[in-house]
Design goal:
By secondary structure, the chain is an alpha+beta fold. It is 40% helix and 20% strand. Bound molecules: phenylalanine. The site of phenylalanine has 11 residues, from strand 9 and strand 10.
Length: 343
Amino acid sequence: MKQRIKQAIENLKQLTASNLEELEQLRIQYLGKKGLLNELFAQFKNVPNEEKKEMGTLLNELKTSIQTKIESLKDSLEQKNEQRIQIDDLTKPSYLQTTGSRHPISLVRNEIVEIFSRIGYSVEEGPEIEDDWHVFSALNFPPEHPARDMQDTFFVEEKTDGNNILLRTHTSSVQVRTMEKQQPPIRIIAPGRVFRNETISARAHCIFHQVEGLYIDKNVSFVDLKQSLLYFAREMFGKDTRIRLRPSYFPFTEPSAEMDISCNLCNGKGCNVCKGTGWLEIMGCGMVDPNVLEASNIDSKVYSGFAFGMGVERIAMLKYGINDLRLYFENDIRFLNQFKSII
Ligand code: PHE
């Protein structure tokens, strides 16, 4: 009898039922009136007294095993049934999968990087939390110079030696870091986030993105600057784009200029985007001031170079006709979805 019980417990493991009728058959076979369990319990009275304890335990074990087995078979059959109901109608169209898309700022930044990488520029990055040296002093901003006010700086920590910690106001700081660690030839662009304490409006934001560029080698002249930026303008805004350079001022470049492109909406005729002038300002540029080269230990008698810097938001606005800077940061899905088809 002991053998039969043990065998029955073992057999239980193999049991399966492919539908509810089969399961009911099993239940009758084991738990029914004339089932195995009742039969064994009937034989229990013939068991010698000294074996009763052990046999009783075994019998109870068999009983609970049967009950759990039948319950679990029942559960899995019910689950299968539910699944079958869910995929009931195989002709149903599937649900539409919504996918994300790249942010317009990333799209335009990638495009700028790509255009410059085609003419040999590599990408450099630097910290967003900077010190005064890399953002101002090394770029020929003397202490107390009014040019520091041009960029409304967020300060993080005041230092007794004057090398305050601040949020970078432009990515020119990355140019300084590159010159410090590398001798010319240098040909880099520095894309990144910058911060200025401006009141948020349609035309200004306290966080925005720049791509700045730096090219230093022997015999680099203003002609190289003009030609490289003309190439960029035509790649970005179309092959008929014209550029013009207006004299300007930056402490780190001499001479300095602002670059305009012919308005890509009216083709230079004058419209409300270019305010009737036919031109759109897109970046600052100039020949690197010898003081800047010397501050980073580059011999200004041997080397010269040019630098430029543009706002990614501004380029994206002109490229896609976006009229409010705040849209870039609101993450409104209706705005973002418009850039889905552009890769
Ligand atoms: N750093 C300047 C700015 O943020 C842009 C610039 C870069 C101008 C390089 C000239 C040369 O406004």
